[in-house]
Amino acid sequence: MSLTILLVEPDEPLRERVRETLREEGHRVWAFSRAEGATRTLETSHEQPTLALLTAGDDPGMDLLLDHLKGNSARCQRVWIAPAGDTEVDRIATARRPRGLLARTDLVNEARLLADRVWRTQERGRVLVHAPAMIGESPRIVEVRDLIDRIAAGGAPTVLITGETGTGKEITARRLHALSPRGHGPFVEVDCASIPANLLESELFGHEPGAFTDARAAKAGLLELGQGGTVFLDEIGELDLPLQAKLLRVLDTRKLRRLGGRTEIALDVHLVAATNRDLAAEAREGRFRPDLYYRLDVVRVELPPVRDREEDAWILANGFLEELSRRLGRKPMRLDSSVKKDILRYPWPGNVREIRNHMERLLLRTPAEADSLTDPALPELGVPDGDRLRIDFSQGPVPWDLIERSAIHEALAAARGNVSEAARLLGLGRGALRYRMSRHGMGGKGQPDTEESDRQAA
């Protein structure tokens, strides 16, 4: 993205030097000796400048040019150039209220630096528009957004995102990427839990022909595909120890070698890892390499669960309803204020993801002519009640799917979102629990390892 720059400078040799320098920087430049010529051109052009460099001095056409810029280029930044000779610079500067005054002694360099600053400011504004939103107004989520902005600007080589299932780790990673200097590069997501362990090494690092039986052609790995951008390793706690060692070496050397390859490839990626596990505890128990943990945990973003975000559940629910209404071509829908207490009281063990899925189900069940939703239809069985599930059979049979969903809710809440721990509490394998979670729209990924293991675990 380049700027369209208007330059008004009566000194022809200086004007040409400034124009050529700015063009070499990739900007489009309209250069004029007098304001009158600039005004005539702008009046017939469909494009307007984003930056105007105007020489202060006795130019009778300047007032008309300024009027045009104010009326047609409201976002155009106007900066004055000091005039040649000793004129009333201060009076002009005050009257025109410029945002700066460039010295003529080093005008070429000052114009170049100014254009670069303006471009960076506008580019950041454009990126913010496209960065994934993190909805909420609670102090905790505001703090997280501010931290993400600081991390993105600082360009940390590795970031660790922690939080329960459904708290928005992928959105956080995408926001970090979008706001960073690498925002124009690729964003490569790797779900370490859904790729079988025997394939994950090849997927991450790539391979050369003959590296294994089916390797007939060279293939770049996902780390290599992220060159110049960001690689997001979701569920990094699922990596086995040998693969952890290889990843650590890549992070230390910033080089990788494909399977079966002999050449090391320089790696230029920003690595963002995410987990809902306590990696420090995993490291103490020997399930995660301590050196890799310390290498990843340089900068950490801890995402709070919805139950700790004050009234954000209400804001999220209504935000999702409005978004989904537009997507379905329906008039904007909101929750009736009478159900606010129920929305805020429910613990939402599936966090943001569960809120979105629940709002989508509510919307699909609601007639198109309705203006608001007065029944939150929250699954009461998912609300903890002592040490057991409260199942009300007084109104007739209770579907097994509802009971199973409620049990998963309880287990996830007790395990604070840790899927492995929730699976242990339920007597299930991790794959079996993820399979059940995906069936209930609770964010589970993948399938059980085999139907037999799923059946035995159940």
Quick recap of the structure?
With 458 residues, this protein is of the alpha/beta class. It contains 19 helices and 16 strands. The strands form five sheets. Strands 2-1-3-4-5 form a five-stranded parallel sheet. The protein has a five-stranded parallel sheet with strand order 7-10-13-6-14.
How would you explain this protein's 3D organization?
With 458 residues, this protein is of the alpha/beta class. The protein folds into four domains: 124 residues, Rossmann fold, CATH 3.40.50.2300; 168 residues, Rossmann fold, CATH 3.40.50.300; 73 residues, Helicase, Ruva Protein, domain 3; 79 residues, Arc Repressor Mutant, subunit A (Orthogonal Bundle), CATH 1.10.10. The chain is built from 19 helices and 16 strands. The strands form five sheets. The protein has a five-stranded parallel β-sheet with strand order 2-1-3-4-5. The protein has a five-stranded parallel β-sheet with strand order 7-10-13-6-14. The protein is globular. The chain starts with a strand and ends with a helix. The C terminus is likely disordered.
What is the approximate shape? Answer: globular
Number of helices: 19
The CATH C-level class name of the largest domain: Alpha Beta
CATH topology of the largest domain: Rossmann fold
* Overall pLDDT level: 82
The CATH architecture of the largest domain: 3-Layer(aba) Sandwich
- Give the biggest sheet: 5 strands, parallel
* Low-pLDDT stretches: 93-98, 381-388, 445-458
